[in-house]
What does this fold into?
Amino acid sequence: MSSSAQTHADAGRRDTPLDGMASDTRLTVNGVPHDLHLDNRTTLLDALREHLHLTGTKKGCDHGQCGACTVLVNGQRINSCLTLACMHDGDQVETIEGIGQPGNLDPIQSAFIAHDGFQCGYCTPGQICSAKAVLEEIGAGIPSNVTADLSSIAISDDEIRERMSGNICRCGAYANILAAIRQVAEGRA
It folds into this structure.
């Protein structure tokens, strides 16, 4: 095709802001598959909140420093504000909406209520997702920086504090959050 013919063909083309910058992404969120066409710059957090309307996961700092956006991806906790949705094509994502429902709460949710592990509640979804992962990590024998005996990981306040250190509570409910996690860890939920 001559350059004048190419120019004429391009004249009828309608460019969109996403041409060459979007991807088809399949996420299974809380057990439900979703096929999304997203700008490649869309974070997982924004995909959850703005495209899937799952607003339980919160945007706190948008820099990975507060943990309010913590979700579980393939069973591992991550800050959803720091990862692009297109990087998780085919992954399983669990948000606070998938952990439990009123009338059928997860034990960690019940423990947070019993121990008043929240005040304003903004950080609570991320705290609960992180706490769930912490309990699974300890149960799987995955050590942390404060694990004293690598052959036998014991649940301790220091162990829980270290593992939850990526989740900030501006209201200062840390003692209550710790008590809630210990209750579940010790099987009293």
Observations:
- The helical segments are 3-11, 44-51, 96-99, 107-114, 124-139, 157-163, 174-185.
- The chain has a mean pLDDT of 91.
